[in-house]
Amino acid sequence: MSWPTQQDTRTALDNGLPPPHSGIGHVVIVGAGLAGLCAAYELTKRGTRVTVLEASGHPGGRTRTLRAPFADGLQAEAGALTVSTQCDDYTVHYLREMGVETEPSDLVGTDFSYCREGTRIRPDQTADHADLLGLHPDERDLTIEEMVARYVTKPNKDIGPEILAPLWGPSPRLLELDQLSVREVLEARGASAAAISLIEPYFLEMRGNELGTASAMAWARYESGPWSLSAAGAEWRKIKGGTDMLARALADKVADHVLYRAPVVRITQDDHEVRVTFLDRNRLQTLTADRVIVTAPFVGMRHINLGMARLSPEKHATMRRMRYTSATRVFLQMRRQFWPEKQLMLSTDGPVRAVRDAMPLRPAGRKILECWFSGWSAQAVASMGPEERVDFALDEVEPLLPGTRANFELGTSFSWDNERHIGGAYVLPELGHHALMEPARRPEGRIHFAGEHTSYEPNGGSMNYALESAVRVLLELSGS
Ligand SMILES: Cc1cc2nc3c(=O)[nH]c(=O)nc-3n(C[C@H](O)[C@H](O)[C@H](O)COP(=O)(O)OP(=O)(O)OC[C@H]3O[C@@H](n4cnc5c(N)ncnc54)[C@H](O)[C@@H]3O)c2cc1C
């Protein structure tokens, strides 16, 4: 059996999806994030009987807009923030189909600056602080943009046209890079440790963990395209009203087919059917189906007993090996804006990797300072209690933005590692990631796999690739 390619999937988005195979009567979907909801929406449109089982009490998964406990209509995003109209074809397609609007992203055009050992440095002022930063003599006159061009953009272009191809097709050169870490590649390109620490916030700061174990293949692909923060422009948008509006619109369409607070605890299959056992108000219930689509992140799937699911050893190994970024965000409501920057975005050398104004385009009044923790610092903060996290963030932010404590009204936080059925922020492609990609998405008997982690792209981590995975699974169902 040959499975749909990335091109097949993209063509189906444009030309319309075929109905599922006539032998498929009932499909159970595990998870009401974007992948699960999109699959449910497309299947019900084609008259297929669908049951979506969602462990939490709401739709959206890793798109989560926090409206409480804030005052004055303030809100913040615990998960996804940005849509690119240039490359997020699937997101744009479903936003349009659901009638959900976008507006300019406030991650573009920020007043970005660094805080190093207590000194504020703008990206064009690095030459004035070359000693403090510890730059090599030949890097001392470069702005950060010039460092990004020298060590990232230009050499990545030299890899070849495949780096920017609309469909992912790794060349031998790219596969070689999958065995090298981002740090090794940057060092081989001549970047000093100081330069690496300055350009890091432009890329892996967003993705999280350690440059020494991150796959240079995935990074080169990401940084060469319009996904890169250093390339951000007008095509970067955000969803009007909150990122969760897309999931909510999809969930409305399939409301009668979704069971919330229904965590799946066991999946078994034989030659004839697949059985999905879930908790319904603390009682075990079992559904039988012709197919199951599992959209739970692999790290969150540790709560599902798959002992009799007939999964191959390769699938089990892939599920164990797939790594996820840790991300924790702390949100501090301020009585007023007391900083001068219109679009505050501060990268720090402390545990708070970045502090930003969560709603910079909103007129003056109350504000939320959003503190991003990623990788090791996200894990450290995740292990604290809720009040301790807020207090820790206040202690860290006060020296960077004096007046934080005086203007503080209330705080809240969100850790993706601590979400029982999710367990991490998004796939973190580490060395050798390519070997995991095909086994991650390959169906096993009657069980199909969707979700950002099953993407054709090495950098799944987006709403776009969660939606793409749903379209791909619908093609799988039509062919069987
Ligand atoms: C901090 C952060 C920032 C991000 N930034 C962006 C961005 O700017 N732009 C962008 O496009 N994307 C971004 N993303 C990525 C994007 O949010 C995700 O890739 C996408 O939402 C994943 O959708 P999904 O359907 O694959 O998984 P999920 O949304 O995780 O959905 C899976 C669902 O399955 C449920 N589930 C798990 N186990 C079970 C079980 N046993 N039984 C029943 N249900 C279960 C979960 O509760 C969850 O609702 C970001 C993510 C994070 C965390």
UniProtKB/TrEMBL annotation:
A UniProt-annotated Pfam family: Amino_oxidase
Domain of life: Bacteria
Ranges for domain Amine oxidase: 34-473
InterPro entries: Amino_oxidase, FAD/NAD-bd_sf, Flavin_monoamine_oxidase
Gene3D superfamilies referenced in this protein's UniProt entry, alphabetically: FAD/NAD(P)-binding domain (3.50.50.60)
Protein name (database record): FAD-dependent oxidoreductase
Organism: Streptomyces ureilyticus
